[in-house]
Amino acid sequence: MTEPTAGGLPQDAMTRLSELQPGKPGWIFTSDLTVNEFLLVKQAGFTPVGMVLGSSIYHVGIQVGRWSQNQELNVLSQAMYHARELAMSRMEQEANVLGADGIVGVRLEVEFKEWGADIAEFLAVGTAVKADDGTSWRNDKGLPFTSDLSGQDFWTLVQTGYAPLGMVMGTCVYHIAHRGLGNVLSNVGRNTELTQFTQALYDARELAMERMQKEAEELHAEGIVGVQLHQRNHSWGAHTTEFFSIGTAVRPLRADHVITPPSMVVSLDN
How many CA atoms lie within 13 A of 218 on its CB side? Predict the structure, then answer.
């Protein structure tokens, strides 16, 4: 078992990263980019310096919603957010050790373990990159940018004069009220909207999206691209679900930026 270093990374991770230092004799970068993505990232003016990751094994607490009430389960929302933040920050620390400007192709995964229904691993994985021209691409917080865009989308973003600032996310764990027997019986054989359910899912998604947008505002972004909105029940049962929104916050490289007409941007997707 290895003890964490002062920066919170295990000693084994520090040893691995020391072997990935660019310029070191025998240096070979690692990457989970596809071949097409690797070539497009290179063409965008960045060199992969190594695969970086962050992990957090987290015990998710218990909170039970009222049987007949729609409500956010704040304890669970906070747990799911904090665990992901820990994984993301450790991935960023690894990129810092490598002197990277950013991390591309980030994957953020959650897996509940067989050790217990309330224990999950939160994992963040991506490829750290450095700008070939020596320009700093770090965001306003002084951290390497993070992006879950594909290599193709990253190339297009940079070619059209935009910079990724960081992955932004929002989460909401929500208890959806059960239907009473009278309500169930009154709707038998009828086409009708279940307004209680509609409102619950609408509210939960709005909370997740609002929190993601707030993170983008803190980075002084112009907007968020590649937004994904996921819904997962995990291990909580049918009436408790997580809504998770994630995307990449971006802004123009220059204040006087004008986007190149699409006809002048060559697509290298194929």
Answer: 11
